[in-house]
Amino acid sequence: MKLSIVTTLYDSAPYVKEFYRRMSTEAKKISNEYEIILVDDGSPDDSLLQSVSLHKKDSKLRIIQLSRNFGQHKAIMTGLSYAKGDYVFLIDSDLEEEPELLGNFWETIQKNHDLDVVYGVQESRKGGWFERWSGNLFYKIFNFLSDSKIPHNPLNLRLMSKKYVKELIANKDKSIFIGGLFIYTGFNQVALFCNKKHKGSTTYSLFKKLSQSAIGIVSFSSKPLYYVFYVGIFLSIISFVSIIYLVINRVFFSLTVDGWTSLIVSVYLLGGIAIAGIGVVGIYVAKVYEEVKDRPLTIIKNTWGLNT
Questions:
Q1: pTM listed for this prediction
Q2: 203-244 pLDDT, tens per residue?
Q3: Which of 7, 57, 109, 183 has the highest CB neighbour count under 10 A?
Q4: Within this chain, do residues 171 and 251 fall inside the same structural domain, yes or no?
Q5: Does residue 216 belong to any structural domain of this protein?
C-alpha cells in the first residue's frame, strides 16, 4: 500500500461526499495503491450513512465506527493504527484544509527521503480576536513549561512515513494531546506553510479548548507542580519575616498595626493561591488516575473494509 489517508467525522455530513471526491482525485495522482480511512467519532448526523453508501461503490474507502464520541485526538490515533500505507496523510474532513494540499506535501517529502514528517502550519491563525489571542497565549505557555516545543499555529494536517506513524501510535497516553505527541515522537520533521479556510463555526467549545489545554500542559510538563511549591516557599518566607517584624514592633516599640481590610485581603489572596495549588495537584492526580485505569483508547462498534 503506497498511501493511506486518515480523517475523522463529527458533524461532517455537509462535507463527506465532496471530501471523498476531491481526496480520491488527489490520491490517484500519486498512486492507485491508496486507501481512505474515515473514523466516525460518534457523529450525531448522518455522516456514517453517507460514508457507508460511498464505501459500497469504492472498496478503497474504509470506515471505522466508534461506539460513542471519544474526542478527535483519540479518533485520530485509532485511524492511524489501522493505516497500512508507506505514507499516511492526516487531514480534517471539513474542507478547511483543502485535499489538494496533498500534492505539495507529497512533493516536499519526496524531495528529501530523510524526512519523516511534513506538517502544516498556518501563516496566521484563523477566527476572532479572542481565538487568535488565546491560541497564541496557549502555545507560549506550553513552550515555556514543556521540553517539547510546538510551533505556533500548527495543524493536524501532515504527511508521515510509516515508521514515524508506528512510533507515534506506540505512545500509550490515555489523555491525549496529539500536538505534543507529534513533536515528542521526534524523527525528521519540516513545516510547510499553508492557508486554512474558516467556516465560521467549530465543534470545539471554550470548555473543550480549556480542557485540552490543561491536558496538554499536564501531559508534557511537571513544572507547574514545582512552581506551586516555589510560590508556597516564597509566601512562607514573607509570612515569617512579617511575623518577626510585627513582634519586634509590639515588644520593643509598643506599636500595633490596624487594618482589618488588609487582613481580609491577605486571607483571600493566600486562600486563592492555596486553592489554585490544590487544583494544579488535582489535575495531575486526575491524569494519573486516567492512566492507571488502562482502559482502551477507543471502542470500535463496527468497521467497513477493514479486518479488525
A1: 0.77
A2: 555 566 666 666 766 666 677 777 777 777 777 777 777 767
A3: 7
A4: no
A5: no
